[in-house]
Amino acid sequence: MTESPTNAPPSSPGLESELLKFRVPEVEDIEVVLIRLEDGTVVARTAEELAKEASGSNTD
C-alpha cells in the first residue's frame, strides 16, 4: 500500500507541499469601535470615521 500525500512526512516532496502554498495579502491593524445604532444595528467604525461623523462631514 502506498502512502497518501496527506499522511506523508513533511519532508517528502509532492502534492502536500503544493496544498500548503498560499499568499496572504498585506494587512494593516486598525482599531475599531462597535456602535449600536438607534435601530439596533451594530456597526464598526474606525477613529477616523468617528471623527468625520462627529464633525458632520459624513459623505456616505
Average pLDDT level = 76
Helical residues, percent: 10-25%
Question: Which strands sit side by side, in order, in the main sheet?
Answer: 1-2
Terminal CA distance = 62 Å
The gyration radius over C-alpha positions equals 24 Å
Question: What would your notes on this structure say?
Answer:
- With 60 residues, the chain is an alpha+beta fold.
- The chain has one domain (5-55).
- Helix content is 23%, strand content 17%.
- The chain has two helices and two strands.
- The longest helix is centred in the C-terminal third of the chain and has 9 residues, at 47-55.
- The mean pLDDT is 76.
List keywords for this structure.
alpha+beta, 2 helices, 17% strand, two-stranded antiparallel sheet, 23% helix, 60 residues
SSE order and pairing:
Layout: H1 15-19, E1 32-36, E2 42-46, H2 47-55
Antiparallel strand pairs: 1-2
Question: What's the gist of this structure?
Answer:
Helices cover 23% and strands 17% of the residues. With 60 residues, the protein is of the alpha+beta class.
